[in-house]
Design brief:
The structure is a homodimer of 236-residue chains.
Chain A lengths: L9 E12 L2 E8 L9 E2 L2 E3 L6 H13 L6 E8 L10 E10 L11 E5 L10 H18 L10 E2 L1 H12 L5 H10 L3 E8 L9 E6 L17 H8 L1
Parallel strand pairs in A: 1-6
Antiparallel strand pairs in A: 1-2, 1-4, 2-3, 2-7, 5-6, 8-10, 9-10
Chain A binds a DNA duplex (27 and 27 nucleotides) through α4.
Chain lengths: 236, 236
DNA sequence: GCAAAAGTGTTGTGTCTACACCCATGT
DNA sequence: ACATGGGTGTAGACACAACACTTTTGC
């Protein structure tokens, strides 16, 4: 068979793992101890093993290297193939987007840390561009899907959710309108219970939760909508 | 170096190439002459060569196999990795979405043909799912980007454009509203000239063209829009 | 009572669909 | 004249941002 003589590239999986921490969107990276790009920050990941899928591979890398089993969402981002992307040799990389809810604090190895994403930290190889791609994907999906569930705790007040959206989108979001948009779409639901106000007082906040724990498109036909008849029978 | 002993999967690139032909969205496939999956239809593509990028690879495959240089748009779709996806052995596949304007008719080899996409033809391997992914991507982008430029001729009447959107979306679209939506967004512009009516008469149709020949997001903030102040300064 | 925090009422705006109507041509 | 295909006017639906206002607590 010709298979054994055909050259094949090495293949790695990488993950852009985001979490909202201290009111900022942060990305998990580790500091390279060796050349090339020694001292720069790299995305977690590693080589694909024989017989595993890309998703199994990135889950394995994340579980082994950074004890992140709290991954609430994981989706494929893109596959990079520039021959010069790794100076050591030909290597393809398939990147994933991972999201961790804001109420957990995974233990990470000594060389690994969370970095605010606003200025992307000096990154190894093409990892800075990959972080940018993850950021664009996350921000887009925040407006037309329920992806917020993967960044938020199980239950939360609306001002907590607002903090998360502000951090992730990098701009102001009003709690008033956030509530109405997400409730109307059926993305959020009220739990019925309330949170005790602090010693500073104030009206007790209602607790909400996301209705579905999986990604759903909530605003499928933002524009160029199908005729109303179809909408009513198919979507409603 | 450890590189030479690490097992790496073979890597192929595939393309879902769509064109609107005879008022239907069709996909380019070739019929396999050998097992596995002999007689079933497969997407064009082939093995990645050393030192080339995925995009170079799929462009080479398309140019060599099916003389499609009229590709008006090409974007990466997804990378598939299920170990059993090719029974002959471990093989990853990176799929691309390609679009051909409706006014050209590329010459294709004898084993290759266009297939209406409504029932996806009996496909080899996981190619049916890949066609589905391409279809979803195209349909979504038709509503929030200018991607129609890649399916339409350089200039066209609105009823011609309507035919293309109807075929691609698989549902009714009114020419009236299509015109207004696309004109308002600045996606379309009038050429100033008109098309002669046939011998059947009728008011001569204005000719339009897409303003930009590259993909642009035209409806970035479909929902959860940023505050008006930011919109005015940044977008307008 | 008053400050603080949360939630609701309401208005205005922009963008879309739907449909009636008007326009320009060939026969 | 009138059939035919193309374009416009306009009303209504809807979802959103903005902001004033009300509710509920602690002190």
């Amino acid at each position: 068979m010709a298979k054994s003589i055909r050259p094949a590239p090495l293949h790695v999986t990488l993950a852009v793992v985001f979490q909202v921490r201290e009111r900022a969107l942060q990305v998990l990276m580790w500091q390279r101890g060796r050349d090339p790009d020694k001292g720069r920050w790299a995305l977690p990941g590693g080589y694909l093993d024989q017989g595993e899928t890309l998703e199994q591979s990135i889950r394995r890398q994340l579980a082994a290297k950074v004890d992140v089993r709290e991954l609430a969402h994981l989706e494929q981002l893109e596959t990079r193939s520039e021959p010069e992307r790794n100076p050591r040799g030909w290597e393809l990389a398939t990147a994933y987007l991972g999201l961790v809810p804001s109420d957990v604090d995974p233990a990470v190895p000594a060389d690994t840390a969370w970095h605010p994403v606003d200025p992307v930290p000096p990154a190894a190889f093409d990892h800075g561009e990959i972080v940018g791609a993850g950021l664009r994907r996350l921000r887009a999906k925040l407006s037309y899907t329920n992806i917020g569930f993967a960044l938020a705790p199980d239950v939360f007040t609306l001002s907590e959710l607002r903090t998360i959206y502000v951090a992730a989108l990098g701009r102001e979001v009003s709690a008033t309108n956030l509530q109405r948009v997400l409730l109307r779409r059926g993305v959020l639901e009220r739990t019925g219970s309330k949170r005790d106000p602090g010693r500073t007082g104030g009206r007790p906040a209602e607790l909400f939760r996301f209705r579905a724990p999986r990604l759903e498109v909530t605003d499928q036909f933002a524009v160029l909508r199908p005729p109303r008849r179809e909408l009513r029978s198919a979507t409603r």
